[in-house]
Every structure is written in structure tokens, then in C-alpha cells.
Design brief:
heterodimer; A: alpha+beta; elongated; B: five-stranded antiparallel beta sheet; 9 helices
Chain lengths: ~240, ~240
């Protein structure tokens, strides 16, 4: 099952002694080793476009991200703005019409297939996990499942990196980053908390996760209390 | 019943209309699930989609009671919907009072939730199963062949809706669309929470207001949801029914 594989990936890349930033680097390296891809890159995206490359596995992955940053076009940019995965099995065939400048540069760097997976939690836009390979061809169903598990892990890592320690201290230590709970109640409670605390959705989700962690409760339990009005996240809470 | 074939035709036309104009996958599947309850005389229904990580995720359900049971089913990894998803074969006319041997945990939970019968119909695309529709009845009623044909048609329409605007021949299109549908669902849940808190109403009422707004303006539900989470729509814009 996916959540357990995502948890496993987070455990594998976690190291209590390392800088949290190293999580992202280990993630792209483990991703490259676990999948039939040549390289991987992790970028932070905002509404305006690519905001920075967090980690790359190799030089060609760096080139891919640099191209998209410079040109403002490419699978990763398309994936982030639309919120859809962009799976390009044969870049030479499908790329020129969609992203002429990017495709030329990417092919020159040896890239033949690109898979851009958006890292989002509903309205929370975090970034994109870009996978590429030097041969054409789509990922098979099991490979896609593995790639999506890495995308889920990367989503958690980016959320963690972007807003640290909202309630003092660092409750979400790198060694204990919990997998995102995908239940409807958690997403609904995230929306409520963002209004109560007057913070963006990303911060609201982190507040929820931090409170759950600090009080030793599952996030879904806490979310139900928020929905019932038993727990509030405004000044008086 | 004399009115039934006409009503079925109306529903199919309604769903076909949804497919062309400002199509929104979350709203489309919600309407489809609600109409399935009506056409098949069930008490509740839900729709689950493959998450392409080996599991199922709940997209829609018509009542909180059904939602609770379906979440239990997904988490306990047993039940008619999961069997239907695993095999691609309908699992129908399940008498929950005697289903304890096949699904001990699910049958017990279904009894607690007050359901007597369950049915699961697959969303199939060629050899791939991309999800399932669940139907629940309080009484242990059976569906006849005609009902089952209607139910399977609803499941097929759901599949078409998921894949519309994309070429069915492209394998990558299916993956892209399934992931997008699951992500849109999360956005709608967040918007329900934002609106519920701002307007001081429950999340179900918030959902009704989001849908009403989308309908009235001919906007996609996920666009309305995105505007709400970005703070671009006021409570007043969404208050009148």
C-alpha cells in the first residue's frame, strides 16, 4: 500500500543528525536508485513559476531545471500551473510543439523522456518532482506507483522545509516527519484553521500536524475536534 | 414503474450535458453518485478511484453515514468495493446479515452503520479497473438485472467522464486524469472548511453553497473552490441559495 511505502521512503531518507535540507537531496538520489530513471530534480514552485531548485541527482537534472527556470516553459512548469502530472514518454516526438526552446536544450542534454509530478495538497502548491530518463518510454503501473510514492514523500518534505516550527520548537524533526493524512476531515480542518489563525493553507496544515504531533494524537482525530468546534486555532484557543 | 425509463433517459441527458460545459470532475462524480441512488432505489452511494499506488481513495459519497463506512472499508482493506476493484467484476446483492464469513470486519461495521445490502460496480477501461461505485440499502433488498444494467451504465459514464477531453488511447492521459481528479477533491474539501468557518455553517452546508454558486454561474466547482481558498470570494457571494 502506498502510505506505507511513502513512510518507508521518509524513514530511509531521514537522519536525525543531518540538516533538514539534506532530506531533499537524499530523496532525489533514492528516487533515481529505486526507479528506472536516469535522474530526478525537486523544485519549489510558486504561482509565478519556478522559485528554486531544492535538489538534483545529476548534471542533466540540473540542466532540466535551469532550462525551465530560464525559459519559463517545460513539463515541470506545465505541471505546476495546471496541477496535472505531465508524462512525456518521447520528448523528441511530443516536446517541440509544446515547448520548443526547452525541448531543444533538454534533448541536447541527453533527456528522452520526462515525468513531472505536481506536489500539491489541494490548494497548497508546493513544487514539482521531475524525473527524466535517457531512453524513451512510459513508466509501467508499478513504476508509476513507486514514482507517486516518492512524490507523496517529496510533498511532505517540501511542506516541512517551507514552514518550520510554527508553534515554537521543532516538533517535526527530520527523523519523524509523518506522512500526510489524506482524509477529507484533515483537508476540511485545514481550511477552517487557515481562517481561525488567519494563515495560508500550508501553514494551517503544518499547525494541525504540529499540534497533533505535540499532543501525541493522530491528525485525523484532531481534525474531527476542529470540525466539531472542540479545538480552535485562534487567539483564544 | 412507468416513470423509470423516462427518468433514466433524463439522467443520462443531464450527465451528458455536464460533460460538455465547464466540466468539473468532482461535481460530475457527485451528481452521478446522487443519481445512482435515485435510479437504483438505494439509500446511499459512494465512488472510489484508484490512487495508482495500489489503493483506492474515496471521491464522493451521498451521506456522512455511507462515507464513514466507506472509509472503514478502505482502511480495513476488505469489503465488496475492494473485491470489485481487485477483480473488475461486479459484487452485487450482498446480504450484509450473512456476509460475515467473507468480510468479517466489513459486515460488522455495515451492521453498525445500519445497512442491510451492498453492491459494488467497477469503473473499467478495457482491462484496467480505475475505481468502483458502491451502493448501500438499509433493507436487504436485491437489484434485478435491469437495475444492474443501469448501475453498470452509470459506472461506464463515470469512466467516460474521467477520461473526457483526453484521448483514450494515451496511457499517460488516464494517469494524469486520475491524479488530477484526486487532487481536485482535496481542494474542494479545503474550500468546504474555509467557507464553513467563515460563514459559521457545517461542512455539508458549505458544500451545498459551493455547488449552488458553481451551478448558477456556470463555473467549474474546483474554480469556485480555488477562489474561496484564495480569499477571492466572500461569504456573501456564497450565502444565498
Amino acid at each position: 500500500m502506498a502510505p506505507s511505502r511513502t513512510r518507508e521512503i521518509l524513514t530511509l531518507i531521514s537522519d536525525p543528525d543531518a540538516d533538514p535540507g539534506a532530506l531533499a537531496q537524499r530523496l532525489v538520489e533514492l528516487c533515481t536508485a529505486s526507479l528506472p530513471v536516469t535522474g530526478a530534480g525537486l523544485v519549489v514552485m510558486t504561482d509565478a513559476g519556478p522559485a528554486g531548485t531544492v535538489a538534483v541527482s545529476d548534471g542533466a537534472a540540473r540542466t532540466l531545471e535551469d532550462l525551465q527556470f530560464t525559459l519559463g516553459e517545460g513539463p515541470c512548469v506545465a505541471s505546476s500551473s495546471s496541477g496535472r502530472p505531465v508524462l512525456v514518454a518521447d520528448l523528441a516526438a511530443a516536446g517541440p510543439a509544446r515547448w520548443p526552446a526547452f525541448t531543444e536544450g533538454a534533448l541536447a542534454a541527453g533527456v528522452r523522456a520526462v515525468f513531472a509530478l505536481p506536489l500539491r495538497v489541494g490548494g497548497i502548491r508546493l513544487g514539482v518532482l521531475d524525473l527524466y530518463r535517457a531512453e524513451v518510454g512510459l513508466l509501467g503501473p508499478l513504476e508509476l506507483a513507486e514514482a507517486l510514492a516518492f512524490a507523496d514523500a517529496a510533498t511532505t518534505v517540501l511542506l516541512h522545509l517551507q514552514s518550520r516550527a510554527p508553534e515554537g520548537g521543532d516538533p517535526l524533526a527530520p527523523s519523524t516527519v509523518p506522512v500526510l493524512d489524506d482524509r477529507a476531515e484533515v483537508h476540511q480542518a485545514t481550511g477552517m484553521v487557515s481562517v481561525q489563525a488567519d494563515v495560508p493553507l500550508a501553514t494551517a496544515l503544518l499547525l494541525l500536524r504540529a499540534r497533533a504531533f505535540a499532543t501525541g494524537r493522530p491528525v485525523a482525530d484532531l481534525a474531527r475536534d476542529v470540525l466539531a468546534g472542540a479545538v480552535r486555532f485562534d487567539g483564544g484557543a | 414503474m412507468d416513470g423509470a425509463p423516462r427518468r433514466i433517459a433524463e439522467v443520462f441527458v443531464e450527465l451528458a450535458d455536464t460533460l460538455v460545459d465547464d466540466f468539473d470532475v468532482v461535481d460530475f462524480l457527485q451528481v452521478l453518485t446522487e443519481r445512482s441512488v435515485e435510479l437504483l432505489h438505494a439509500d446511499a452511494a459512494g465512488l472510489m478511484l484508484a490512487d495508482q499506488r495500489g489503493g483506492l481513495r474515496l471521491m464522493t459519497s451521498t451521506t456522512p453515514r455511507a462515507r464513514s463506512l466507506e472509509i472503514f472499508e478502505v482502511q480495513s482493506l476488505e469489503g465488496p468495493c475492494l473485491d470489485c476493484f481487485a477483480t473488475g467484476v461486479p459484487v452485487v446483492n450482498v446480504d450484509l446479515a450473512t456476509a460475515g464469513g467473507r468480510w468479517p470486519r466489513f459486515a460488522a461495521a455495515a451492521a453498525e452503520h445500519g445497512y442491510g445490502a451492498a453492491h459494488a460496480l467497477p469503473l473499467r477501461l478495457r482491462k484496467e479497473v480505475i475505481g468502483a461505485i458502491n451502493l448501500f440499502s438499509d433493507a436487504a433488498v436485491r437489484l434485478d438485472d435491469e437495475d444492474l444494467a443501469v448501475g453498470q451504465s452509470m459506472a461506464d459514464i463515470a469512466t467516460i467522464g474521467l477520461l473526457q477531453e483526453r484521448s483514450l488511447r494515451e496511457k499517460s492521459a488516464l494517469s494524469e486524469q486520475l491524479q488530477t481528479a484526486l487532487s481536485s477533491r482535496v481542494l474542494v474539501e479545503q474550500a468546504k472548511g474555509v467557507l464553513a468557518e467563515r460563514a459559521g455553517v457545517g461542512v455539508d452546508e458549505a458544500f451545498t453553497r459551493l455547488r449552488t454558486r458553481a451551478r448558477r454561474r456556470g463555473e467549474a466547482l474546483s474554480d469556485v473552490a480555488a477562489a474561496v481558498v484564495r480569499g477571492e470570494l466572500d461569504v456573501e457571494d456564497l450565502s444565498d441559495h
